[in-house]
């Protein structure tokens, strides 16, 4: 049985005792980080080949494969592993009990965060690393497992450069999907229930004109909150996040929190992050890894006391 996926930072992990490993991946469109025992071994840029050989030292090893690229690049399929010289799979330790879901755009995906500068000459695949996005770094800082439902260029009600003030299929349109482009595969919200959901949308809504009205944007956030609560229940904790690069999302997210609380939903919070300076930016003015680390530090510090989380994992 194979596993299909497309969301950024999808992770495949296993323990084994073997000297050689073949990863069986049907893809050609996406790149992956391969970690061996917690250290980056290589970046796998998939091609028409479906078998990727890995040599290991003697003993047991923990292998982690993370999808660097977002759903804009397309879906991949993990078909399993092969142990040409024999060996055995071993049990994994328990997964983190803390869980955070992130809903967002290119900042959450990690678009261009490893780029050589602001101008990446129209080449993006090698420079996208979702494992080092602000979202993934925040989760690891807090000792939490995470999933990112995010699409570069998409907004709460309007996608980047749309000629209209709203788009027919913004980010929330895809929220309940297991794969972005498979409307027939709806997500089972009982399969993985987070402690908190972080929503960072608005950059694409307001980065080009015509802007959506404040009322329309805020209603879009309310509708997304309702989707989240319908999926996970009324006890879910939700964080609305904006950075200070554009004023409208900051003000509108704050208003959405106030209105939610006036309607009786107290478990919603606003967090503002500082947008990184130019020397911490990558492709097309997106946060580079250093900028993402700074943003994650601010977000983790805001989340920790509200969630009652002390040290990572405790």
Secondary structure blueprint with pairings:
Elements: E1 3-5, E2 11-17, E3 20-26, E4 31-36, E5 39-45, E6 51-55, E7 60-67, E8 76-82, E9 88-90, E10 98-104, H1 106-109, H2 134-141, E11 144-150, E12 196-200, H3 203-206, H4 214-232, E13 237-243, H5 247-262, E14 268-273, H6 289-307
Parallel strand pairs: 10-11, 10-12, 12-13, 13-14
Antiparallel strand pairs: 1-8, 2-7, 2-9, 3-6, 3-8, 4-5, 4-7
Task: Describe this protein's structure.
This protein is α/β, with parallel strands linked by helices and 314 residues long. The chain folds into 2 domains: 3-87, Galactose-binding domain-like (Jelly Rolls, Sandwich); 98-307, 3-Layer(aba) Sandwich (Rossmann fold), CATH 3.40.50.1110. It has 6 helices and 14 strands. The chain has helices at residues 106-109, 134-141, 203-206, 214-232, 247-262, 289-307; strands at 3-5, 11-17, 20-26, 31-36, 39-45, 51-55, 60-67, 76-82, 88-90, 98-104, 144-150, 196-200, 237-243, 268-273. It has a 5-stranded antiparallel beta sheet with strand order 5-4-7-2-9, with no helix packed on it. Strands 11-10-12-13-14 form a 5-stranded parallel beta sheet, sandwiched between helices. Strand 13 (237-243), helix 5 (247-262) and strand 14 (268-273) form a beta-alpha-beta unit.
Going by CATH, what is the homologous superfamily of the largest domain? SGNH hydrolase
Helix percent reads 10-25%
Number of strands: 14
The end-to-end span amounts to: 36 Å
* Tally of separate helices: 6
If you average the pLDDT, what whole number results? 97
Judged by helices, strands and strand pairing, the structural class is alpha/beta
**What is the CATH topology classification name of the largest domain?**
Rossmann fold
What CATH first level of the largest domain would be assigned?
Answer: Alpha Beta
Low-confidence stretches: none
Largest sheet: 5 strands, antiparallel
Strand content: 25-35%
């Amino acid at each position: 049985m194979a596993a299909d996926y497309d969301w950024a930072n999808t992770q495949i992990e296993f323990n084994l005792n073997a000297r050689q490993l073949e990863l069986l991946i049907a893809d050609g469109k996406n790149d992956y980080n391969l970690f061996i025992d917690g250290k980056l071994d290589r970046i796998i840029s998939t091609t028409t080949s479906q078998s990727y050989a890995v040599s290991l030292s003697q003993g047991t090893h923990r292998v982690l494969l993370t999808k660097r690229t977002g759903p804009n690049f397309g879906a991949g399929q993990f078909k399993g592993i092969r142990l040409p010289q024999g060996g055995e799979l071993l049990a994994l330790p328990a997964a983190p009990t803390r869980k955070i879901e992130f809903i967002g755009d290119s900042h959450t995906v990690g678009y261009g965060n490893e780029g050589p500068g602001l101008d990446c000459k129209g080449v993006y695949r090698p420079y996208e690393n979702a494992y080092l996005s602000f979202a993934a770094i925040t989760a690891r800082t807090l000792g939490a497992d995470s999933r990112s439902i995010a699409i570069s260029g998409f907004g709460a009600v309007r996608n980047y450069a749309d000629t209209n003030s709203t788009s027919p299929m913004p980010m929330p349109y895809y929220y309940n999907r297991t794969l972005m482009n498979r409307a027939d595969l709806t997500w089972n919200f009982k399969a993985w229930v987070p402690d908190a959901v972080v929503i960072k949308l608005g950059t694409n809504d307001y980065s080009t004109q015509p802007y959506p009205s404040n009322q329309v944007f805020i209603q879009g956030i309310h509708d997304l909150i309702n989707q989240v609560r319908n999926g996970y229940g009324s006890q879910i904790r939700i964080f609305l996040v904006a950075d200070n690069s554009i004023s409208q999302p900051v003000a509108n997210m704050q208003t959405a929190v106030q209105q939610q609380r006036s309607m009786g939903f107290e478990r919603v919070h606003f967090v503002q992050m500082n947008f990184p300076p130019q020397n911490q930016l990558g492709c097309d003015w997106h946060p580079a890894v250093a900028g993402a680390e700074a943003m994650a530090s601010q977000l983790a510090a805001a989340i920790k006391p509200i969630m009652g989380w002390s040290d990572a994992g405790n």
